[in-house]
């Protein structure tokens, strides 16, 4: 085989033919796609010698297409192209070999089939609202000598129906084991089912597959078995179907389960730190399914029981020291009972500040703050006055500084005063 030649289309296979007294030559024959064998030489679409100029020309005239996958109800576009049309038109036909379009001319009256593009080198059509019956091999032909064809396999995906969960009864008891079943029909190819409880994955049995009566789609089913606990009360068991036609979209069904379990209880005091003389409420907080319907209050060392009621609180209108002790609350439902304990220690009374005393305390605080500010101000003022205390300066008469003795200085000073300059004192 010569190098540099384009590879042949996938629909063709090179086979060696050897005749008597003839060299081995390579012919291209159309492959029978269903049987996976070569068509007989006499039925081959083309039988030109590979590597010859005629073969190169035939390759340019060979149309090509591509396989398509579409979801049922969607739209598929079939595109056929050819490099050298040899003044001939392209044609599309369906798996029943009915002509759909010949060039730009519609041949089959089916409004779902529309022309997308028609040129000498391309013929593209669209099929909308695709059904499972539309699946198969579509043929693009060009009427040259000989006629050349290309196949396009259209695969239609069946969308699975929303799954259905069965097997759940009205309610489950704690630690009981249950089995749920999930089923979904209409998928093609067969879908897969998965289970989860809330965000937790449940490991169910492998998905079972059964062909539907139409022979095209499948029904899948799965089951999961697990033991329930009180934490599962109100939980959602979810069955999800996974299929390529959904393109990541969620398609699931959930079943909320109810779990019956024995009650629990705890005692909560109000106020938390009771003192003598206060009002006290002991709340018996019961939890269960069903919720407790009856509460029995007892005090150790006291007979008979203090109280049996549907109310969950034990009330002490005026608490005193004698109320100290250990108290028990028994919460009861038709699933059983539970007893909780609380030790009450009554503390000494403490004065509770009234609103008037609180008001006086606020006023006293404000007054104390003002007095504090005044003291600070007085301290700063006293410090300022000390640093700026007054000074006396005496100005002597002029001329006394140069006198040789005291008498002369007095004479000079008196003479200086005659000029009208008197001795003065200044306060600075």
From TrEMBL:
GO-annotated cellular components: anchoring junction; presynaptic membrane
Location of the Ig-like domain: 53-142, 160-258, 263-345
Pfam families: C2-set_2, Ig_3, V-set
GO BP field: homophilic cell adhesion via plasma membrane adhesion molecules
Keywords: Calcium, Cell adhesion, Cell junction, Cell membrane, Disulfide bond, Glycoprotein, Immunoglobulin domain, Membrane, Phosphoprotein, Repeat, Signal, Transmembrane, Transmembrane helix
Membrane topology: Single-pass type I membrane protein
Record localization: Cell junction; Cell membrane
Stretch list, region Disordered: 397-428
Transmembrane segments: 359-386
Function of the molecule: Involved in cell-cell adhesion. Has both calcium-independent homophilic cell-cell adhesion activity and calcium-independent heterophilic cell-cell adhesion activity with IGSF4, NECTIN1 and NECTIN3. Interaction with EPB41L1 may regulate structure or function of cell-cell junctions.
Family label: Belongs to the nectin family.
Subunit and interaction comment: Homodimer. Can form trans-heterodimers with NECTIN3. Interacts with EPB41L1, DLG3, PALS2 and CASK.
UniProt-recorded name of the protein: Cell adhesion molecule 3
Organism from which the protein derives: Lynx pardinus (Iberian lynx)
């Amino acid at each position: 085989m010569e190098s540099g030649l384009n590879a042949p289309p996938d629909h063709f296979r090179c086979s060696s033919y050897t005749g008597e007294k003839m060299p081995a030559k390579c012919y291209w024959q159309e492959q029978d796609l269903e049987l996976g064998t070569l068509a007989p030489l006499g039925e081959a679409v083309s039988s030109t010698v590979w590597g010859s100029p005629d073969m190169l020309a035939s390759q340019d005239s060979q149309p090509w297409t591509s396989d398509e996958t579409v979801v049922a109800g969607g739209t598929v576009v079939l595109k056929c192209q050819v490099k050298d049309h040899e003044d001939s038109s392209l044609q599309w036909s369906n798996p029943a070999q009915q002509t759909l379009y010949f060039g730009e001319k519609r041949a089959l009256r089916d409004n779902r089939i529309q022309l997308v593009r028609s040129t000498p080198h391309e013929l593209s059509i669209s099929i909308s609202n695709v059904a499972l019956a539309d699946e198969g091999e579509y043929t693009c032909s060009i009427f040259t000598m000989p006629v050349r064809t290309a196949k396009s396999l259209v695969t239609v995906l069946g969308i699975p129906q929303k799954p259905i969960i069965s097997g759940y009864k009205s309610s489950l008891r704690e630690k009981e084991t249950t089995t749920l079943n999930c089923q979904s029909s209409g998928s093609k190819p067969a879908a897969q089912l998965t289970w989860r409880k809330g965000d937790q994955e449940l490991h169910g049995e492998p998905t079972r597959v059964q062909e539907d009566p139409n022979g095209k789609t499948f029904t899948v089913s799965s089951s999961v078995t697990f033991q329930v606990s009180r934490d599962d009360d109100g939980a959602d068991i979810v069955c999800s179907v996974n299929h390529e036609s959904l393109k990541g979209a969620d398609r699931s069904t959930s079943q909320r389960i109810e779990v019956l379990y024995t009650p629990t209880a705890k005692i909560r005091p109000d106020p938390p730190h009771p003192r003598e003389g206060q009002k006290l409420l002991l709340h018996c907080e019961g939890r269960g399914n069903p919720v407790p319907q009856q509460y029995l209050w007892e005090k150790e060392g006291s007979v008979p029981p203090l109280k049996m009621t549907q109310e969950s609180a034990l009330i002490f209108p005026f608490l005193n020291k004698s109320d100290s002790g250990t108290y028990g609350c028994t919460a009861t439902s038709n699933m059983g009972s539970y007893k909780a304990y609380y030790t009450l220690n009554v503390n000494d009374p403490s004065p509770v500040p009234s609103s008037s005393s609180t008001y006086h305390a606020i006023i006293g605080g404000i007054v104390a703050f003002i007095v504090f500010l005044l003291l600070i101000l007085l301290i700063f003022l006293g410090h300022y006055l000390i640093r700026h205390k007054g000074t006396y300066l005496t100005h002597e008469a002029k001329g006394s500084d140069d006198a040789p003795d005291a008498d002369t200085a007095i004479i000079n000073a008196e003479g200086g005063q005659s000029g009208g300059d008197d001795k003065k004192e200044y306060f600075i």
